[in-house]
Amino acid sequence: MTIKDCVKKFSSELKLITHIPAKEIEILIMYLLEKNSIWLHLNYNSEFEKERELEKLVKKRATNYPLEYIIGKASFYGEQFIVEDGVLIPRPETEILVDKAKEILENESKSIKILEIGTGSGIISVMLALLIKNIEIIAVDINPKALELAKKNAEKFGVIEKIDFRLSNLYENVHEDDIFMVISNPPYIANDYKLPYNVKFEPSNALFGGVIGDELLKSIIKDSSNRKIQYLLCEMGYDQKNSLEEYFKEFNVEFHSFYKDYESFDRGFTLKFKI
């Protein structure tokens, strides 16, 4: 059976799982053959000798198991990051959070220290380490597996010396008093929210933020203010803008702004405290 025939045959098994079933079959084939898309399309009519292995992967994907976990990687900010089961999969909208931080940090001439809370696979810290020359990053997470994965990504991109990875629940193991910015994509989904089936394969402690959902966000805001940190940038739930904006009034805030994601949902904020 040719590659073309395999794509046609197995696409039907994923039509209820993804809106791009043929594309996902191609990705699985490239994963099995360790080839890129250019090679694939130049050899579309070649014989495919790993049909049995492909069938196993397709059946796994047909259970809604994330494609990124199967192939062990995810695209973020134009780069391929390592991903593993048990750690949150990078989302495209988090690229906007990186952009917002970059806009502030690239205008600073002196060396800057920032803190990332809930680093997960390390995508935010690694990208900022690549994008900003004079930066020192503390990246914390409560999940030891996430920290090990984040280190792998930092090593892959050659920025491990710029990032101090720590096991910490929020600020618990962070005692520095010279942090310029905190950045975070924390859990912000309400505990009773019914997740799409595919998301249930991802770690719940990286998704659910409390009864309302914004409890962790508010804790980060309060602690950042108490520690006299100048900037706080966070991702948030699409329905949390009003409650967070009201909460900002409890602190000495110089300015704040919200931003939308690629689907035009409210997705995050930049907060500058008066210090």
- Per DSSP, the total helix count is 10
Distance between the termini: 67 Å
This entry's quaternary arrangement is: single chain
Q: Give the averaged pLDDT, no decimals.
A: 93
Helix content: 25-40%
Order of helices and strands: HHHHHEEHEHEHEEEEHEHEE
Low-confidence stretches: none
User: How large is the radius of gyration?
Assistant: 21 Å
- The overall strand count is 11
Q: Could you tell me the strand content as a percent range?
A: 15-25%
Secondary structure category: alpha/beta
Q: How would a textbook summarize the main sheet?
A: 7 strands, mixed
Strand order of the largest sheet: 5-4-3-6-9-11-10
Morphology: elongated
Description:
This protein has 275 residues and is α/β, with parallel strands linked by helices. Helices cover 36% and strands 20% of the residues. The chain has helices at residues 3-11, 21-33, 37-42, 51-61, 67-71, 94-105, 123-131, 144-156, 215-226, 241-248, and strands at residues 73-76, 79-82, 112-117, 135-141, 163-167, 181-184, 189-190, 208-210, 231-235, 253-260, 266-273. The longest helix has 13 residues, at 21-33.
